[in-house]
Amino acid sequence: MIPSPYDVVVLVKNMPDKGLTKGMIGTVVDVYSTPSLAYEVEFCDQQGRTIFSLALAPERLQYKP
Fold first, then answer.
1. Domain regions of the chain by residue span
2. Other C-beta atoms within 10 Å of 20: how many?
3. Listed residue (30, 58, 26, 25) closest to 42, CA to CA
4. Long-range contact set of residues 57-61: C-beta below 8 Å, sequence gap at least 24
């Protein structure tokens, strides 16, 4: 299944330069189709503050139904 805006996804690889670790849960906020498929994902802390928001390729994410 392809994630849509507001779907929950899981990061599948560490991104230490962004402060993100494998297994972090994020929310899809937008879907881009050009120049290639990518998802704008927002990762938040326990208080709901944004840690990082960035566009990620589908292979960096796992859909969490």
1. 8-54
2. 20
3. 26
4. 59/12, 60/11, 60/12, 60/13, 61/3, 61/9, 61/10, 61/11, 61/12, 61/26
Asked whether the predicted pLDDT for residue 59 surpasses 80, the reply is yes
Residue with tokens 């990518």: 38
* pLDDT tens per residue, range 6-58: 999 999 999 999 999 999 999 999 999 999 999 999 999 999 999 999 999 99
**Residue 51 CB coordination number (10 Å):** 13
Residue whose entry in the numeric block shows the structure tokens 């972090």: 24
Cα(52)–Cα(25) distance, integer angstroms: 12
